[in-house]
Amino acid sequence: MRIARFSIDGNVAFGVVEGDQSSPDGLVLDIIKGHPFAEFERSGRKVPLNKVRLLPPVLPNKVIGIGRNYAEHAAELGHEVPDVPVAFFKPSTSVIGPGDTIAYPSFSQEVHHEAELAVVIGRMCREVPRERVKDVILGYTCANDVTARDIQRSENQWARAKGFDTSCPLGPWVETDLDLAAAADLAIMCTVNGEQRQLGRTSDMVRSIEDLVVHITEAMTLLPGDVILTGTPAGVGPLNVGDEVAVTIEGIGTLTNKVIKRG
Ligand code: MG
Asked: Model confidence over 173-229: pLDDT tens digits?
């Protein structure tokens, strides 16, 4: 099932995406009663998807990013794959939705795209044992871990480089039907203005989704709607004002955002 979050008549709602998946104009949202983090019912009240504004599919309390989780990407930036996963935060204020604009920050001259599979947490959890990881995941969505690369190089902590406003596009919806094995072998692609920049498979991750959930929840409680970014494949590169960047993940969908100058 695909669950989108959207605004309608000034209200925010969740809906199940139905209809012809081959064309955006064929998609309909069946508005759900309540929210997707508990048992819910479909209302049967349907709206065409192209008549609403999609929002970030969840509002995370925190986004935990994982650095250097694809060996080829670590190598392209001149790094080894670390012995322990590199974890960092992106603040809730960095999150934007499908179609929202990425505002190029004034303090950087080198902003990069990073296409990533995002894990959406479905329930409050901590110290999750490996065999329970599947139970704490609501589903998966596409993410762009937009990064001010020059700032990342010049500052020890990545809070500004990876945490600036609009640096965490998520969407277009949460796909809940992928099990761990399926999520661990998906094609992931990034295009800029229609030109392919990144192409990889989630099977190239150094640490698996299970590894990451175990590692993170050893340290902290995750809440419903929290998001883990699982790292990016090789091919990262610059974004410029006016670009349109799209992250596509097999079996999930495409997340598209334009880059504008920060106003
Ligand atoms: Mg990243």
From this structure: 999 999 999 999 999 999 999 999 999 999 999 999 999 999 999 999 999 999 999
Say how many Å lie between the CA of residue 42 and the centre of ligand 1.
35
Secondary element (H or E) of residue 181 = helix 180-183
CATH of 63-261, one of 3.40.50.1980, 3.90.850.10, 3.30.200.20, 2.40.110.10: 3.90.850.10
**Tokens 């990451």 sit on residue:** 212
Q: At 206, give phi and psi (nearest 5°).
A: -75, -50
Ligand 1 centroid distance, CA of 138 (Å): 21
- How do residues 61-83 score in pLDDT, each as one tens digit? 999 999 999 999 888 999 988 89
**21 Cα–ligand 1 center, Å:** 28
Domain spanning 2-53, CATH architecture: Roll (2.30)
